[in-house]
Amino acid sequence: MRSALFSAENLEKESAQPGMRLQNSKMLKIELNGEAMARVGSMVAYQGQVQFQALGSGGIGKFIKQRLTGEGVPLMKLTGRGDVFLAELSKDVHVIDLEPGDALSINGSSVLAFDSTLQYDIRMVGGAGMASSGLFNCVFSGHGRIAVTTRGTPVVLNVDQPTYVDPQAAVCWSANLQTGYHRADQLGLGTLLGRSTGEAFTMSFAGQGFVVVQPSEEPPVQGSGTQQQGGLLNNLIS
């Protein structure tokens, strides 16, 4: 049987080292030897002896945060030994290595998988209160790998001047940056008449670091509380 489908670039990539790596630009491969965390529903194939455990709210603190911030992004724990392939809606996949001392803030809807050695916490973006519908993100730290997804090829902005990004396009950013919420639409007669630029609010970034921006906007998450107003929910459940 012959076909370009069976070309070398489409064959499973093998490695002598366990862990996560790109199978291709749209698919992540985890050579599992122990455990890892992944987005529920992201598994497209696996080989070997692997167990999948859906996780609820791990501890009262995160349970309360999850209830306050909406439905969240459920996780599953992968345990065992084998190869697991993950993907989400043909989005581009990127693998980031975190070293001791690193900290990364990330839009929860962009998380695909991460090593169980990493720690994270759900936090509200500075300056994003009830008036801005609530904006939450996860801060990852520790030593390990994390895989994130983007809708298309992103741009990495170096924050060396005041920087503003649509909340639905922000993928991740340096955790040390100062963040806020900025009104992009200028109030005036046009606003009172119902005219809008479609960019009512943006996230603001200041300090020294980077912001990863995708060329597409994630649809607003509809949930409870302030999320019903169309705010973006960026959280995870452990």
List the topology elements.
Elements (H helix, E strand, L loop, with lengths): L18 E6 L2 E13 L3 E12 L5 H10 L5 E12 L5 E7 L4 E4 L4 E5 L3 E6 L11 E6 L2 E7 L4 E5 L3 E3 L4 E5 L3 E6 L5 H4 L8 E6 L2 E5 L25
Antiparallel strand pairs: 1-2, 2-4, 2-7, 3-4, 5-10, 6-9, 6-13, 7-10, 8-9, 11-16, 12-15, 13-16, 14-15
Give helix % range. Answer: under 10%
- End-to-end distance: 46 Å
The number of distinct helices, counting runs of at least 4 residues, comes to 2
Order of helices and strands: EEEHEEEEEEEEEEEHEE
Q: Could you describe the largest sheet, including whether it forms a barrel?
A: 7 strands, antiparallel
Q: Over all CA atoms, what is the radius of gyration?
A: 19 Å
- DSSP, total strands: 16
Q: Could you tell me the mean pLDDT?
A: 78
Low-confidence stretches: 67-72, 129-134, 187-197, 221-238
Helix/strand structural class: mainly beta
Q: Percent of residues in beta strands?
A: over 45%
Shape, per Cα inertia axes: globular
Structure, explained:
By secondary structure, this protein is mainly β. The protein is 6% helix and 45% strand. The chain has two helices and 16 strands. Strands 1, 2, 3, 4, 5, 7 and 10 form a seven-stranded antiparallel sheet that branches. Strands 8-9-6-13-16-11 form a six-stranded antiparallel sheet. A three-stranded antiparallel sheet has the order 12-15-14, with no helix packed on it. The protein is globular. The chain starts with 18 loop residues before the first strand and ends in a 25-residue tail after the last strand. The model is unreliable at 67-72, 129-134, 187-197 and 221-238 (pLDDT under 50).
